Amino acid sequence: MLLRPFPILACSSKLQCALSKEDIEANHMLRAAELADKSAGLTAPHPNAGCVLAHGARVVGEAYLYAQGTTSAEVQAVERAGEHARGATAYLNLEPGDCHGDESAVKALKLAGISRVVVGLRHPLKHLRGTAVSFLRGSGTIVDILGEDQQKCLKIQDVLKACELVNLPLLYTAAHQIPFSVLKYAMTLDGKIAASTGHAAWISSKLSRQRVFEIRGRSDAIIVGGNTVCRDNPQLTTRKEGGHLPIRIVMSRSLNLPEIRNLWDVSSALTIVMTQRGARVEFQKKLLSKGVEVIEFDFLTPKNVVEYCYSRGFLSILWECGGTLAAPAISSGIIHKVIAFLAPKIIGGAAAPSPVGELGMVEMTQALPVADVSFEQIGPDMLVSGFLKEIPDLRVTTTNSLELQNEASKVEVTNACVSEVISFYKAWNPYGAFSNFSPHPVSIPDAEGYLYTWRSTEHFYQAQKFEGVQDTIAQQCVQSIQAAESPEEAARLGRTLERQRRDLVRLNWESTKLTVMYEALLAKFSSYDYLRKLLLSTIGQVLIEASPHDYFWGCGRDGTGFNHLGKLLMKVRNELQIQQQKENLNGSFMTSFQNHVP
């Protein structure tokens, strides 16, 4: 979540200034981080990766990972460089994280003849950390990791900070097992977020509000309290057509909320209301009838909420709540960063609310320090940001490199161990290839027998909702899904139209969607040998789609879901096993026949 530009070193082409090797490499690494940041806000937050291929100061190829489920930055950069990739150095802000069984990123670098790879950060996820580095080094490629193998000079520290900033959600989530949480508020110079009446529109300038929309677009979810819903009636959108829209979350123990509010309209963006068990049951039913998701907790706390969000796969959460909710969120230790917009206004009044409620501190020595503070003027306002929790340091020194090797060995052993149940969910998690969002195009014949290639099984599935519907809107949606660059975008397009125009969904969809999904999965795991082997390696184990909110395709929060995706994968596995047995039998027959031919 970047709030200031990268300090890329400048060099005039006219003067052809002679930069040192250190300056050149710093420039390339900063460029890789800058490229990686281009995908933030286009889809839901995910690992952000950039790649720069260069011979000295000359760049021959560069690219970034648009989203999970799309072609890796390394593969794209190699393709763009062509024959110029041979002998080049690759600069990566993040260690490649191939979790789909194909190792496409590292293999692309190796096959292209890359002579050296410079990595900004090791991958934060344990099941991926160090694997790409080991693969490359094992195949003879020189790999340097900033801050580990090189002198820790100031310039390297600047580059490392850039690499960290572009993947803050991933770093914090991996280190703390909760999403990266940012508390955002706007206040006057005298520390008020509203007048004594509660009126708060608008404290900050239009330019500052536009920045907030951008920050929202980089988040998986936005959290507000019931007071904010009652008082402000917010929309919590990014104010732009299309693109990623974060999920809106409302925390309210009593559910003493109005029946008509902007957040109850889920035609474009989803809303989740989190409350305590048994609160206003009839009102819960009304929310559910509007398409609002309701999650009950035995006791609603900020910590319980972020733990649930972690299980749902969220990487980044933006808290836009008032002081009443901000205080317990900070006290529970789940807020990592604070973003404050200071407007040049004074409102006064003892009753006017402040951005953070009572924390129980009676002395200034108890005040929570905010570290790594930055300042930026936005129009008439001043944007101040800083961290309440330090950025996790995943660098490895010579003293603990052995510890990392042991850790990697343990991960390999753990993955090799046979368990009765295999859970999968997000594409970057272990067994991410089982996700419909994995980067595996599938070719499936249409109704007329024409073989059409879809960018992922999710693309195919979402488009089939409107297959054969003779309506311009439905047909345009299918075309948009076909062109969607990522599975997230395909899912958003299909789900949004399904919510907005249920009448456009094909009449037999409920009775055919399992068949459609099975057809897509069978095509996917039959088309890729390494995927087929991966699925067959799970024979004897139960596959569970561990979605905490999907009770149809997944197991749901309490494990009572139908798990249809897991069941269909096991059905595909049985089909592939039968095919393999037939192939083995035919192979044995041919071998026996040939041995007996005189």
Give a quick set of tags describing it.
598 residues; Dihydrofolate Reductase, subunit A; nine-stranded mixed beta sheet; 37% helix; Cytidine Deaminase, domain 2; Tetracycline Repressor, domain 2; globular; single chain; five-stranded mixed beta sheet; 3 domains; alpha/beta
Notes on the structure:
This protein has 598 residues and is α/β, with parallel strands linked by helices. It folds into three domains: 21-166, Cytidine Deaminase, domain 2, CATH 3.40.140.10; 174-359 and 368-387, Dihydrofolate Reductase, subunit A; 409-583, YbiA-like (Tetracycline Repressor, domain 2, Orthogonal Bundle). It is built from 18 helices and 18 strands. It has helices at 21-37, 73-81, 104-111, 131-138, 154-166, 168-176, 206-217, 226-232, 281-289, 302-311, 323-331, 401-416, 457-464, 472-483, 487-500, 509-527, 529-536, 564-596, and strands at residues 50-55, 58-64, 89-94, 116-121, 142-145, 180-188, 221-225, 247-251, 271-276, 293-297, 316-319, 337-343, 371-378, 381-387, 421-424, 442-445, 451-454, 542-545. The strands form four sheets. A nine-stranded mixed sheet has the order 10-9-8-7-11-6-12-14-13, with helices on both faces. It has a five-stranded mixed sheet with strand order 2-1-3-4-5, with helices on both faces. Helix 13 runs antiparallel to helix 14 and helix 16 (509-527) crosses helix 17 (529-536). It starts with 20 loop residues before the first helix and ends with a helix. The model is unreliable at 1-5, 12-16 and 398-418 (pLDDT under 50).
